[in-house]
Design a protein that fits this description.
The chain is an alpha+beta fold. It has 4 helices and 2 strands. Strands 1-2 form a two-stranded antiparallel sheet.
Length: about 100
C-alpha cells in the first residue's frame, strides 16, 4: 500500500465520547483508560491486544486504532449498537 493512496482513515466510537474527543482529541486505549469514556471494545479482543507489542515501538494500546475501512468485522459485531456509535473520518495526514 502506498501512503498517498490513503484518502481517509476511520475511527469507531460511541457518540457519548464526542464531547471529550472534541476537547482532547482521539486518545489511545491507554490514554482513554485515564478518563471517563464509553467503550465499544470487545473485552476478549482487548485482552489479546494488551499483550501486543509493536516491533521497535510501544504496545498496541499506546496507539489509536484507526481503520482503512470502517465496514469491518468489528463494526459488524457491534450492529446492536448502531444507534449509539458513529464513525469519524480522519485525515491520513495524521500518519
Amino acid at each position: 500500500m502506498i501512503r498517498s493512496d490513503i484518502t481517509e482513515l476511520h475511527y469507531i466510537t460511541p457518540i457519548a465520547n464526542l464531547p471529550s474527543i472534541m476537547q482532547l482529541g482521539i486518545l489511545s486505549n491507554k490514554q482513554a483508560s485515564k478518563i471517563g469514556h464509553v467503550s465499544v471494545a470487545m473485552e476478549e479482543i482487548q485482552d489479546k491486544r494488551r499483550q501486543k507489542k509493536i516491533p521497535g515501538a510501544g504496545h498496541l494500546h499506546d496507539y489509536v486504532n484507526l481503520y482503512f475501512d470502517a465496514h469491518n468485522p468489528m463494526l459488524s459485531k457491534r450492529r446492536d449498537k448502531n444507534t449509539e456509535i458513529c464513525i469519524l473520518r480522519v485525515d491520513p495526514k495524521v500518519l
